[in-house]
């Protein structure tokens, strides 16, 4: 057995075992606290809502465990099981030019992966979300969304794949620097284009028509020097009862978006406080910092791929006999998570730091009490558990656990 095969199998076993262990910890922790609302929330969240959140969490955890095992089997099937080798041989038999062969190979592999993930997506939406009263999506809308997404990915992904493979083949030994530059430019372009050109493909956006709320929001934006001319309401209720709000884009394409479900749940002061929190992310330059961190991580990963692409043991260790740049790219995309998932707590810790900073900003520029009330309503409405296992949360949650977050905001009221 190739030495790298042994390393890969050991890393995969550890990856699966750690994630299942974390999930079981989370399950035990949520079950142990299912019948007691944390004291800080006892006045706002009734016991039946707390139990619903626990049951919703436990149900999702069961599906998560199945997904972990299924994804591990698929990874073995693609690599040591010969899936990549077979797909490559099939496309190579057509004797197309290398660039066309590589593009077709990668796009077909991604399409197969998406199809294999469909049963899980259907189960999440039409079983779990339906059972807990969150789903409002019809099967027809689900199919329409999937078709739109496939067409969009094909339209955007095909030229991007061609460009990346062309650079990998012809840009010399430092091709990974050129690919990194393309990836960064593409990320910036998508961030700019998303609110005006991509999001409207899936959702309907209308101007905020509540004049009193709009005036209050515009006053907040003016006080904080936020140059947004677009305050929109998205028809989130056509798909789910979950509520949310976000900023998207930059420059002239910057848009503030409220889900209609959020506006139905919160009062004016609470909405203003949620927006102030999002403004905190803008003022503290969290988006730019996140992009910079991802840029460094992406550069390091591409440099690693630049080294591995020339290593015969990399291909042989993962079940491939015929090296090529497109096979190397797919292998790397498939196996990287097995080796770098240990970075998740560091990334989550940084994200939580950003959330605390945005909360502190909101407390200074809006009503901290209103933000607490808004968060509690959102925890209740979205059935988010108030009692996550700390270690599981450290790996999986980009936002601080509810008790810690509310406790910090409460301290700012004093």
Structure description:
This protein is mainly α. It has one domain (1-414). Helix content is 73%, strand content 4%. The chain is built from 16 helices and four strands. It has helices at residues 3-32, 47-78, 83-92, 98-131, 139-170, 175-202, 211-223, 260-265, 268-283, 286-308, 312-317, 325-340, 344-365, 368-381, 390-396, 402-413, and strands at 205-207, 231-234, 245-248, 255-259. It has a four-stranded mixed sheet with strand order 1-2-4-3. A hairpin with a 6-residue loop joins strand 3 and strand 4. Helix 14 (368-381) runs antiparallel to helix 16. It starts with a helix and ends with a helix. 26% of the residues are buried. The model has no long low-confidence stretch (mean pLDDT 93).
Distance between the termini: 64 Å
Domain count: the total is 1
Average pLDDT, all residues: 93
Low-confidence stretches: none
Summary keywords:
single chain, about 425 residues, mainly alpha, about 5% strand
Structure in a nutshell:
The chain is mainly alpha-helical and 414 residues long. It has helices spanning 3-32, 47-78, 83-92, 98-131, 139-170, 175-202, 211-223, 260-265, 268-283, 286-308, 312-317, 325-340, 344-365, 368-381, 390-396, 402-413; strands spanning 205-207, 231-234, 245-248, 255-259.
Topology of this protein?
Elements: H1 3-32, H2 47-78, H3 83-92, H4 98-131, H5 139-170, H6 175-202, E1 205-207, H7 211-223, E2 231-234, E3 245-248, E4 255-259, H8 260-265, H9 268-283, H10 286-308, H11 312-317, H12 325-340, H13 344-365, H14 368-381, H15 390-396, H16 402-413
Parallel strand pairs: 2-4
Antiparallel strand pairs: 1-2, 3-4
């Amino acid at each position: 057995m190739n030495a790298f095969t042994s390393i890969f199998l050991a890393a995969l076993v550890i990856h699966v075992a750690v994630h299942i262990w974390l999930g079981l910890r989370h399950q035990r922790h949520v079950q142990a606290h299912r019948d007691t609302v944390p004291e800080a929330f006892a006045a706002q969240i009734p016991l039946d809502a707390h139990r619903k959140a626990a049951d919703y969490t436990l149900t999702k955890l069961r599906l998560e465990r199945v997904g972990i095992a299924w994804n591990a089997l698929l990874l073995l099937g693609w690599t040591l099981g010969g899936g990549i080798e077979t797909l490559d041989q099939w496309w190579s038999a057509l004797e197309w030019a290398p660039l066309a062969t590589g593009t077709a190979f990668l796009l077909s592999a991604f399409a197969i992966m998406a199809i294999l993930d469909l049963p899980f997506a259907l189960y999440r939406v039409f079983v779990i979300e339906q059972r807990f009263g969150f789903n409002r999506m019809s099967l027809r809308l689900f199919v329409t969304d999937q078709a739109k997404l496939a067409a969009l990915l094909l339209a955007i992904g095909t030229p991007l794949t061609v460009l990346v493979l062309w650079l990998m083949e012809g840009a010399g030994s430092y091709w990974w620097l050129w690919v990194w530059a393309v990836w960064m430019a593409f990320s910036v372009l998508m961030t700019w284009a998303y609110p005006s050109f991509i999001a409207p493909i899936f959702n309907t956006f209308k101007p905020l028509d509540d004049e009193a709320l709009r005036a209050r929001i515009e006053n907040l934006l003016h006080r904080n020097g936020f140059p947004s001319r677009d305050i929109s309401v998205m028809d989130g209720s056509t798909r789910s009862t979950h509520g949310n709000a976000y900023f998207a884009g930059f420059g002239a394409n910057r848009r503030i978006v409220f889900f209609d479900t959020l506006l139905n749940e919160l009062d004016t002061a609470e909405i203003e406080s949620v927006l102030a929190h999002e403004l905190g992310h803008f003022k503290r330059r969290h988006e730019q910092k996140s992009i910079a961190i991802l840029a460094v991580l992406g550069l390091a990963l591409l440099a690693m791929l630049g080294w591995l692409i020339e290593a015969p043991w990399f291909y042989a260790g993962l079940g491939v006999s015929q090296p090529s740049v497109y096979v190397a790219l797919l292998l790397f995309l498939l196996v990287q998570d097995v080796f770098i998932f240990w970075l998740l707590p560091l990334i989550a810790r940084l994200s939580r730091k950003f959330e605390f900073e945005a909360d502190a900003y909101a407390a200074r520029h809006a009503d901290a009490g209103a933000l607490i009330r808004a968060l509690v309503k959102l925890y209740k409405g979205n059935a988010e558990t108030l009692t996550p296992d700390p270690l599981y949360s450290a790996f999986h949650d980009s936002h601080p656990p509810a008790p810690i977050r509310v406790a910090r905001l409460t301290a700012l009221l004093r």
